[in-house]
Amino acid sequence: MKLAVIGSNMVDLTAYIHHMPAPGETLEAPDFSISCGGKGANQAVAAALCGAEAMMVSKVGSDLFADNTIENLKTFGIDTRYVTKASDASSGIASIFVDESGQNRILIVKGANDLLAPTDIDAAETELKACAMIILQLEVPLATVYHAIDFGRTHGVPVLLNPAPATKALDITKVCACDFFVPNETELSILTGLPMETLEDVEEAAKSLLVRGLKNIIVTLGGRGALWMTQKEKQYVAPYKVTAVDTTGAGDAFIGCFASEYAKGGDVLAAMKKASAFAALSVTHKGTQLSYPTQEELAIFLQKKAAE
Ligand code: RIB
After folding, report:
1. Phi and psi for 39 in degrees, rounded to 5?
2. Helix or strand run (H / E) with residue 199
3. Catalytic residue among 63, 79, 179, 252, which?
4. Which DSSP symbol is given to 21?
5. Strand 216-220 and strand 180-181: pairing?
6. What is the DSSP letter of 113?
7. CA 211: distance to chain centroid?
8. Is the pLDDT of residue 243 over 90?
9. How far does the centroid of ligand 1 lie from the alpha carbon of residue 199, in Å?
10. N or C: which end of the chain has fewer CB within 10 A?
11. What is the pLDDT of residues 133-144, one digit of tens each?
């Protein structure tokens, strides 16, 4: 079972801090790390760790980070034949602050990711047509995202869109053909302009997108679990209680694991439950890809949780 991620890669520069700096404040961070990230790459890595044969269509820059990014994907067994180098751009960079509660603030420089074009998708047509699912995010141009959705519809390949980072420029009518739309609550709020205080608020916001033509909406709610809504169904998946050290990339962990599991059996709820566990375990460690568990670690975690 093969999955394709058409999307971003970034170099994550993460500073671990006690609290977020106030405007004009200079703070010292007691810890720092450089690692491979980017929503697309994180999702591909999570899918690969959950047993999928993953490929990426992505763009790196012409700098010292480029080869390392490609090599890193290869270490997870990801097919990088369609990860190409842009000759006149930097690699994508994410500047991340993680505070003591594990919450993060992220600022991205898209760099080469902004040059991923519809033609890059067409170049991988043969391989993409053979995939069980295409996974997309919004760290690459919207035109490329729309083209990928049209490609999926034309060739009968299911598409999952993670609208992250959320932008009001996203044309919902152009993404209605995607099979799964997976925002977190912040993204859902930005896209709908609606509040997210209560679970009822989340449901109302999801409903407003269903009315506009989206089919399956899965909202990741962090410590509040996850919600799946269609025109006919509404299901909550309860969260796993863990102590969060770093929540960065947890949404990507959920999506990669969900796609991998769903592609195996087509069971949305079962895939959401496994994805919740995979993402919960990821927040107990620092980093994004580096925090994702192996299947053995996940099995031990699930056994432990079942015994509690
Ligand atoms: O979702 C987490 C990711 O967002 C980080 O890895 C960072 O690169 C940004 O893209």
Report:
1. -60, -40
2. helix 199-211
3. 252
4. P
5. parallel
6. G
7. 24
8. yes
9. 26
10. C
11. 999 999 999 999
Query: Residue 224 corresponds to which amino acid?
Result: R
Residue 203 identity = E
**Atom number of ligand 1 nearest to Cα 41:** 6
Strands (E), 187-261: 216-220, 226-229, 234-237
Tokens of residue 252, six digits: 């990507």
Evaluate: CB of 108 within 6 angstroms of ligand 1: yes
Which secondary structure element, helix H or strand E, spans residue 75, and what is its range? helix 65-75
Could you give the CA distance from residue 127 to residue 124 in angstroms, rounded to a whole number? 6
| Nearest residue to 206 (alpha-carbon basis) of 225, 245, 168, 233 | 233
pTM comes to 0.97
Q: What is the mean pLDDT of the chain?
A: 97
d(CA 177, CA 146): 10
Is 201 one of the annotated active-site residues of the chain?
Answer: no
Q: Tell me the per-residue pLDDT of 115-139, one tens digit each, with 9 for 90 and over.
A: 999 999 999 999 999 999 999 999 9
Angle between helices 295-307 and 268-282 (to 10 degrees): 100
Question: Could you give the 3-state DSSP secondary structure of residue 133?
Answer: strand
Q: Closest Cα partner for 209 from 221, 220, 219, 198?
A: 219
- Token readout for 231 is 């025109």
Cα distances from 147 to residues 9, 178, 201, 289, in angstroms, run 19, 11, 32, 27
CA distance 285 to 30: 16
CB 30 within 8 A of CB 84: no
Beta-sheet pairing, 10-16 with 133-136: unpaired
* Sheet with strand 180-181: strands edge to edge: 79-85, 53-60, 2-6, 133-136, 159-161, 180-181, 216-220, 226-229, 234-237
Output the residue whose Cα is nearest ligand 1's atom 6.
37
Q: Which residue's C-alpha comes closest to atom 1 of ligand 1?
A: 249
